[in-house]
Automatic annotation (TrEMBL):
Residue ranges constituting the HORMA domain according to the UniProt record: 26-226
Protein name per Swiss-Prot or TrEMBL: Mitotic spindle checkpoint component mad2
Coiled-coil residues: none
Keyword match S-adenosyl-L-methionine: no
Annotated Polar residues bias: 128-137
GO biological process: cell division; mitotic spindle assembly checkpoint signaling
GO cellular component terms given for this protein: cytoplasm; kinetochore; mitotic checkpoint complex; nucleoplasm
Length: 232
């Protein structure tokens, strides 16, 4: 199982054919990378990790999205996305996880997991042990789906963001001040910057899990799962 890397933040991480294929993968990686950036912002806004006045509205995916306007948080997310971009282009990523933690108790109260599958030539073969370790991951699928238009991909992404927004109807209210961590499951041979360290999985103890929608491109599939602690 790839080791999760984390960086935490509180307010006060040959042939012409192959060239064409790499370009397609790069374009798909950019779509996934942007999706993750907006997911982090949306989760922080919808779950009230930071005050609503710290966010500004932008148009993306045909929706009004809220992104942080706080300089510290923006810089932190930018740093994460810069490293994630390198790992995505190198097909080194299997999961991205956003964990919300109570500042008072240090308990992990919510965990948003995004499983990444890579199709076709770029899919890495996994050992049976690695496959068994990824108990929360969707089943492997190395065969690429049918080609989709940008409009079709955007519609799938829209559905996920609508689900994240609607999740406030079933997720328990977050009490007190919270902070967040971003975990990235990168291949063992990935180059890791000094500021990124190994981390445990930060699972929710005795948590409930809800599988949300997925989206796919010709090169990637992303599945979404939220785990949360039941209210006392």
């Amino acid at each position: 199982m790839s080791q999760p890397k984390t960086s935490s933040k509180s307010k006060s991480s040959k042939s012409d054919a192959s060239k064409v294929h790499k370009l397609a993968l790069k374009g798909s990686s950019k779509v996934v990378n942007e999706f993750f950036e907006y997911c982090i912002n949306t989760i922080l806004f919808q779950r009230g990790v930071y005050p609503a006045e710290d966010f500004t509205a932008v148009k993306k995916y045909g929706l009004t999205m809220m992104v942080t306007a706080d300089d510290q948080v923006k810089a932190y997310i930018k740093k994460i996305m810069g490293q994630l971009k390198e790992w995505m282009y190198g097909s080194k990523i299997s999961k991205l996880v956003v964990v919300i933690t109570s500042k008072e108790t240090g308990e992990h109260v919510e965990r948003w997991q995004f499983d990444v599958q890579i199709f076709g030539k770029n899919a890495k073969t996994k050992s049976s042990k690695q496959a068994a370790d990824q108990e929360n991951s969707a089943p492997d699928a190395t065969e690429a789906p049918e080609e989709k238009t940008e409009t079709e991909i955007q519609a799938e992404i829209q559905s996920i963001f609508r689900q994240i927004t609607a999740s406030v109807t079933f997720l328990p209210m977050l009490d007190g001040n919270c902070t967040f961590n971003v975990l990235v499951y990168a291949d063992a041979d990935s180059e890791v910057p000094l500021e990124w360290g190994d981390s445990d999985a930060k699972e929710i103890k005795n948590g409930e899990k809800v599988q949300l929608r997925s989206f796919s491109t010709s090169n990637h599939r992303v599945d979404t799962l939220v785990s949360y602690r039941l209210a006392d």
